[in-house]
Every structure is written in C-alpha cells, then in structure tokens.
Target: Glycerol transport system permease protein
Amino acid sequence: MEKTWNNKAWFMVLPVLVLVAFSAVIPLMTVVNYSVQDTFGNNEFFWAGTDWYVDVLTSDRFWDALTRNLIFSAIILAIEIPLGIIIALNMPKKGLGVPVCLVLMALPLLIPWNVVGTIWQVFGRVDIGLLGHTLEALGINYNYVQNPIDAWVTLIVMDVWHWTSLVVLLCYAGLVSIPDAYYQAAKIDGASRWSVFRYIQLPKMKRVLLIAFLLRFMDSFMIYTEPFVVTGGGPGNSTTFLSIDLVKMAIGQFDLGPAAALSIIYFLIILLLSWIFYTVMTTSDAQS
Model:
C-alpha cells in the first residue's frame, strides 16, 4: 500500500516561517548586502567585494577586541559554572526554603540589562556609590573609570552577580530530577559526598550544564549593554568588546560597510565556537 503524505501541516508552520523571514533572514541579507558594497549617501552603492572583510580581519582593532571578548568569556565561564554548581548543591530540596531560594535566585535575572549597568555604575562610584566609598574608606585605590583592572573587575563581578543565578537554576533542575534510589544505593554502599557528586550528580547534570555553558558563553561573548553603560568601553579601549566596537563603527563613525562585515564575522565566530563547544561536550557525554 502506497503511503500518502499530508502536507497540510505546513500551513501551521507557515506563519512562523514568515515571522522568522521578516525578523531574521531579511535583516541578515541586508547586512550581507551592505558588507560587500560601499556608499557615499544618496542611496548610491558601489561594489566593494570582500574589501571590507579584508580590512576588518587585518586590523589590530578587531583582533584586540576579539581577544578581550575571549578573555572575558573564559573568566566568566571559569567562575559562574563552578559557582552555580556549588550553590545548587547547597540549596534545599524540600520544605519552605525551596521557593524562597528559587525566588531569590530568579531576582537578578528579572532586572533589565541597562538597569543592571546603571546600578553598578552608581554602586562603584567613589563619591556616592556604596562599593566605591567603602573601598576608599578601607584604603583601597579603586576607580573603574581610570583604572583598566578596576574596570575589568567591576564588569566581571557585575556579570557574576547578574547571571550566576541562571546556572544555579539549571543545575538545580538537573539535581531535583535525580531519583532518590540513586542516593539510597550510594548511602548503602557508604559512598562519600565527593563520590556521590562525581558518579551520580555530575553525570545527571551534564545536559543542563551543556545548556548553561552554551548560554553563558553566547551571552558573555555578545555582552554590550552593561559595559557600555558602566565604562563606555573605557578607560581607553580596555573594555571595548566587539559589540561596543561594532556600534561605534556603525553609529559613531557611520562606516556601514566595515560595520556590516564586522557583524557578519562576529556572527560566524559565535556560531563556530558554539558549535565546537556543543560538539566537544556532546561527544564526551556520549563516550562516558
């Protein structure tokens, strides 16, 4: 008997495809169009080919910003992933403490990014900010506006405060899904707490850790609003990440061609690194 295909289901998906086309595909094609052309205004365009891509990839400005992005993301992942696991392991699994802890963990995630930047901008000021004033009273020379190290420390602490909760909630969801039978068997065998974590909890959290890892990498690598509000990319260019440099190039300098080429390169880097992380982590998960 020949199998018949019913294609009416595509009509249910069609509105989503149209929405994605207008919100993602068409703008992306517009950026690609700008990246291979040059314009001097009056809606006149001239073919530039790959010139803008060559200019971006051969500029020290791009590689310096990319290096800052990679260092920042590496520091964020090295802090937030272990810290999120530790907090999730110590959260209560039953009782009134569960909803209280979950609400407290979710609060930083509810604050908009520009508000987070404004909070830490004021918080770190030496004249009126609690953090800056306290550090100055303790004799610590702290000024995120003038000192690049202070600016980096401020951005890292701010991001850890804002986004560690996401890792905590994902890890906690993985922990509460573990059946009690595993813990009972470990207790009977006299397993230590480290053995329980190593052989029961960590393997069960691998998939949520993969999600947390990818989300935090992409978010930290694309960070823009918080450092722009707090430091504006300064002092100097010490906190000028690719996203900030892209905005300066597109809006500040109105170099649409190089900015479009940089945005395409930026997008491909994120896509490539995310694919590498996903492939490595899923391969190790399959082998274990």
Notes: Residues 9-49 form one domain. The chain has twelve helices and two strands.
